[in-house]
Amino acid sequence: MSETKLVDENSLIGIAATFWQQYSAKTPQKLKIMDAFSLYCFILVIIQLFYCALVGDFPRNSFLSGIFASAGALIINICLRKQLNPETRYMEISNERAFWEYLAAMVVLFLTVINFLG
């Protein structure tokens, strides 16, 4: 007897299920943590944009600083993830150097954000 598949692999749900299975099995734990932080930053940007559309951006510098901090942290985190991923070694940079570059970029980002607040 042939087995019937519950999820069609060509459907959107099937593609998502296959992606999740491969992601869970092949991605190292530290990259999963970085992905969770990236998702958090992305959701934070969306919430801030929604709040701006709903309420307004009266203290404009505060609104822009929040967006820049969230989006900047997201981008810098994605860059670190690319450098730490063992499958895509980026310019053969050591993990320690990549982490220190990440910290330096975050310090510059948040000093810029604090300066922009006034």
TrEMBL record:
PANTHER family: DOLICHYL-DIPHOSPHOOLIGOSACCHARIDE--PROTEIN GLYCOSYLTRANSFERASE SUBUNIT DAD1. One of its GO terms (biological process) is protein N-linked glycosylation. Belongs to the DAD/OST2 family. InterPro entries: DAD/Ost2. The keyword Coiled coil does not apply. The chain crosses the membrane at residues 36-56, 62-80, 100-117. It comes from Paramecium octaurelia. Its main location: endoplasmic reticulum. GO terms for cellular component: oligosaccharyltransferase complex. It is a multi-pass membrane protein. Subunit of the oligosaccharyl transferase (OST) complex that catalyzes the initial transfer of a defined glycan (Glc(3)Man(9)GlcNAc(2) in eukaryotes) from the lipid carrier dolichol-pyrophosphate to an asparagine residue within an Asn-X-Ser/Thr consensus motif in nascent polypeptide chains, the first step in protein N-glycosylation. N-glycosylation occurs cotranslationally and the complex associates with the Sec61 complex at the channel-forming translocon complex that mediates protein translocation across the endoplasmic reticulum (ER). All subunits are required for a maximal enzyme activity. Pathway: Protein modification; protein glycosylation. It is found in: Endoplasmic reticulum membrane. It comes from the Eukaryota. Keywords: Endoplasmic reticulum, Membrane, Transmembrane, Transmembrane helix. Pfam families: DAD. Coiled coil: none annotated. This is Dolichyl-diphosphooligosaccharide--protein glycosyltransferase subunit OST2. Component of the oligosaccharyltransferase (OST) complex.
